[in-house]
Amino acid sequence: MLYLTREEERMLGGEEGPAVAKSMELLVALGEVFGAERLVPVESAHISGVSYKNLGDAGLDFLEEQAGLGARARVRATLNPAGMDLDLWREMGVPEAFAEKQLRVIQAFEGMGVELTCTCTPYLVGHVPRPGSQVAWAESSAVAFSNSVLGARTNRESGPTSIASAVTGRAALYGYRLEESRLPGKVVEVEAELGTRLEYSALGYLTGELLGTTVPYFKGIENPGLESLKALGAACATSGGISLYHIEGVTSEVARIPSEALRGLERFSVEGADLAEAASALSSGVDDPVVCLGCPHCSLEELREAAGLLRGKTLRRRLWVFTSRGVHREAERRGYVAAVEEAGGRVLRDTCMVVAPLREMGWREAATNSYKCAQYLSDMGIAVRLGTVAELVEAAAG
Amino acid sequence: MRLQGRKVVGGYAEGEALVSLDPVSFYGGVDPETGMVTEPGHAVEGECVTGRVFVFPTGKGSTVGSYVIFRMRRMGTAPAAIINAETEAIIATGCVLAEIPLMDRLEADPLEALRTGDFVKVNADEGFIEAVDGRS
Question: Which CATH architecture has domain A6-179?
């Protein structure tokens, strides 16, 4: 049986209103399913299930009802991407009916006191949990980053559970919230030379396929940089359900892993040829793709790089870059946005290619440097080519 | 027949059993407008879950499935109760949101003990179900 404090009992009993009671009921039910002994306070939440494309009327109904019942975030809560740039949706080709519903979703979250960050990279816009802190994050790529790079503790929350944690400030104590669940389960020896972010993304994709949900311990990765870690984790979480990875000499919890914990673990080795093979499995032939960057959302460094590659060029094809409002503001100030847009590209905020209604927007083909994006777009029936940023810019310039 | 089990979401409901040997995805696999199972090749494809005690091994697919269960309840197309062999987060979340009784870990495998057409009373609050053979 799950133990509740007196305050938690009161919340469950409805003394803090129906929205808190419902949220508590959800956390308790899941806690019992997963064998949690108690709840823990969480310092923040990151909420997924924002795009109307995924939510549909089912999700919209629920969110509006919760907001109407007085659901309010009692810890810091940020929001995942929506299905469109909240200002530039007409230009994106998003249908009016979709936009109307999407804006209602955003309004419901605003009513709950959630920060309308609309990004899958909250950690790039100032939402950075402390090492060892308990948080309730949804969005699989942000979960992987938060657990692995920042050393915070979260399970892979869903839309409803991340909202419930925001509203109650609690989560059930099980899974990656417990020290013993955070130990590695398999060793991945990286023999391949990793240069580009595309290669990190390929390594992540391959690792997820090999390991499923097991925690990997990578050896042989040096000085990866934030953008590479972001790409690696996003891909790991796409092909598998990896929510936490360790990299020898790099990530935050490696020093705490006792050496005997690695002994006897099954080992995989990944060579350069394996990465190339992973790319060919997801890539198909494309004639006239929309080039899209920013899965997960571009960092300032990635925008600087794109601007550098595009400066002085004239694009023949569409090139869309997706980022958060926070990063966009800074990139605008530094002239990166202007460099991309003067070449004929577009920098969009609040959304990305994975959660926008691409089919309704008329997309048939795309090119990207992200395996996560490639997987989701293939699932939508859109033909995808994978390439490095430099190759993609070259292709868009024709 | 009376079987003890684990209450995941409380409540009481009764109805005719619909037993699926395949896991169920409510997102994309069930039409919330009609309550019909639409996943091609699924064990109970073409069956309607509305008002029935829906018995299946576990949930699968997108977490959006939780919201679909909620919407079905609002539209009046939801199952009366759900019994899983071993439940998971998507189904459990959906049943909490929709206030649908949910039980799992019965003392006998529900996929063998129950048949489509049996009349089943799900007393999740008390942690047991009672079933009457649909053929008798």
Answer: 2-Layer Sandwich (3.30)
